[in-house]
Amino acid sequence: MDIKDIQNLIKFVSKAEVSEVKYKTKDFEITIKTPLAGSDAVYAQPAVYHTAPQAVAAPAPAATPAAAPAAEKAEVASDDSKYVTIKSPMIGTFYRKPSPDKDVFVNVGDEVSVGKVVCVIEAMKLFNQIESEISGKIVKILVDDATPVEYDQPLFLVDPS
């Protein structure tokens, strides 16, 4: 069952106004619980803790002209136009590793091919492998590990040449 099937099942359950649905197959099980309209049931969500990446402020050079960063940004923007972006197909939490004790899927400079797993996105306690849709070289990783991502958010820049 893929994420679209799960999303459709959630929509169906919410429209059907039922309190609980269990869907079970040989190797997959999902339970969806919703409060019934007019019921006094209270459902508590478990607390989710995210650790924010620590930002380290670099000391700014005293004699840097203001025009140099603007020119550098314009140059980077023109260079990025030749790259292809791998975007998030869903909302969830972005992870570069399959598990905390494993190596990352890809690093900057790694070659990827169509179908190679580049990251996982956790959505509703399900870890969805995100595969590359293009072949090329990873130029930039745009998201920090273990941070929330939105639908269609850019994750990687790939040089297809």
Short description:
This protein has helices at residues 3-16, 67-80; strands at residues 20-24, 29-33, 84-87, 92-95, 111-112, 117-123, 126-131, 136-141, 147-149, 154-159.
Could you characterize what this model shows?
By secondary structure, the chain is an alpha+beta fold. Among the domains are: 3-33, no CATH class; 83-159, OB fold (Dihydrolipoamide Acetyltransferase, E2P), CATH 2.40.50. The protein contains two helices and ten strands, in the order αββαββββββββ. It has helices at 3-16, 67-80, and strands at residues 20-24, 29-33, 84-87, 92-95, 111-112, 117-123, 126-131, 136-141, 147-149, 154-159. A four-stranded antiparallel sheet has the order 3-10-8-5, with no helix packed on it. Strand 6 and strand 7 (126-131) form a beta hairpin.
Topology record:
Blueprint: H1 3-16, E1 20-24, E2 29-33, H2 67-80, E3 84-87, E4 92-95, E5 111-112, E6 117-123, E7 126-131, E8 136-141, E9 147-149, E10 154-159
Antiparallel strand pairs: 1-2, 3-10, 4-6, 4-9, 5-8, 6-7, 8-10
Looking at this protein, list some descriptive labels.
single chain, 161 residues, alpha+beta, OB fold (Dihydrolipoamide Acetyltransferase, E2P), 4-stranded antiparallel sheet, 2 helices, 10 strands
